[in-house]
Amino acid sequence: MTSRERVLGAYEWTGYDRIPVNHEGTPEINSIARARGTDQVLIDLVTDDPVYLEIMEARFKFYYDLHERVLQEAEGLVDITHMADVPGTQKAQVISFETFDKHFAPKLKRYFDMVHRYGARSMMHMCGCVRAFPLRLIDLSVVYC
Q1: Cross-strand partners of 88
Q2: Is 47 exposed, middle or buried (0-12, 13-18, 19+ CB in 10 A)?
Q3: Domain encompassing residue 23
C-alpha cells in the first residue's frame, strides 16, 4: 500500500473528499515544556539556551518534513493544516514580540509558505490571552487564527 493509499484510507470512513492535517511540531513552548518544564522553556527563550534551540529546531524540522511529505502524497486533497501553541496566559502574552520574531516567526513563515505552495490553507490555534498575535500571524501568512 502506498502512502497516498494509507492517507486516503484513513479518511475513507468520513465521507469527505478532502483531508485535514494536524501539526504537532510548531516551533513551540508547550510540548517542549512537557520535558523541560515551563519555567525552564521561558528562561531558555530569553537566554537563547542552545539545548532548547536545538530541540526546537529538531522538532520543527521533523514535523515540517512530515507535513511536506503528507501534502506531496495527498496531491491537492488537503484543504487545511492545523497547528497549536500556547504563547499566552489567561491575562497576557507569555513571550515578547521580540522573542516571537526571533524564535518563532521565521519557522512559522517557512511552514505557512510551504503549506500554501501545496494549495492548502494554514490554521493556528493559540491558547490563553493572544489578542496581540493574530495580526502578526496574518503578516506571516496564516489564514485562520
Answers
A1: 93
A2: exposed
A3: 3-139
Q: How far apart are CA 86 and CA 84, in angstroms?
A: 7
Q: What is the pLDDT of residues 3-56, one digit of tens each?
A: 667 666 666 655 555 565 665 556 678 788 888 998 999 999 999 999 999 999
Q: Where are the beta strands (DSSP E) in 42-118?
A: 78-85
Greater pLDDT, 137 or 62: 62
Q: Would you tell me the crossing angle of helices 50-74 and 3-10 to the nearest 10 degrees?
A: 90
Computed over its alpha carbons, how large is the radius of gyration of the chain? 16
C-alpha cell at 9: 484510507
Contacts of 140 by beta carbon, 8 Å cutoff, 6+ apart = 105, 108, 109, 112
- CATH code, 99: 3.20.20.210
CA distance 2 to 73: 9
Provide the number of structural domains found in the chain: 1
Mind listing the pLDDT tens digit for each residue in 61-100? Answer: 998 998 898 889 888 888 888 877 767 777 778 888 898 8
**Nearest-angstrom CA–CA distance, 34 and 109:** 25
